Amino acid sequence: MQDIITYKRAALNNYRLILDTPVAVKRKIADISTRLDALFPGTPLAGSSSVIYLASFSVYEPDEMAVTDQLHRIALATMPWKIHLKGVAHLEKKEIYIPVTEGERINAVTEKIAALPASWSNERFNTLPRISLARNLQSWQFERVWPYFEKEPFQTQFIMNGMLLLRQLEGYRSWHVEQRFLFENQLIID
């Protein structure tokens, strides 16, 4: 009974688990986003980011430590790897994004996270590793933008050595970095 009362008073915070890109890659992505926004002066397009989303979920504050411990164990057992970004693609003519050319490693990490016996809710796991440039496009917006970016020569690669957990406190709009998990390639025995 005491646990039920505790959870009724506990805050339900939102979390995002992401792979962040290096500063040099952020600049290259910002250049593309600037060119994209220039096609619609005064109307910014939704969705521009320079991160790869792995998952989003909600957790009551008393369970936060258990979830972060599980995520830390996954990171400890993961080896850093090279990420290749190449070109620009679209998803159902509603989203324009930069694809990750070999997303198997990212999907493997996402699958480990999805398999956790965590006490979270509202969970969503990203099965298409990408960096979104514009989302929720209207058909006329897509038709106007796509010819400019269809053959975009964007290409870069970098080493991914960790993931970030972002937290949004209940009742707030902003996100902050809650914890960084480094990929350390260590053997974890249960």
Automatic annotation (TrEMBL):
Alphabetized Pfam families for the sequence: 2_5_RNA_ligase2
Annotated InterPro entries: 2H_phosphoesterase_YjcG-like, Cyclic_Pdiesterase
Source organism, top-level taxon: Bacteria
Transmembrane regions listed in the UniProt entry: none
PANTHER family: PHOSPHOESTERASE SAOUHSC_00951-RELATED, PHOSPHOESTERASE YJCG-RELATED
Protein name listed in UniProt: 2'-5' RNA ligase
Species in which this protein is naturally found: Niabella pedocola
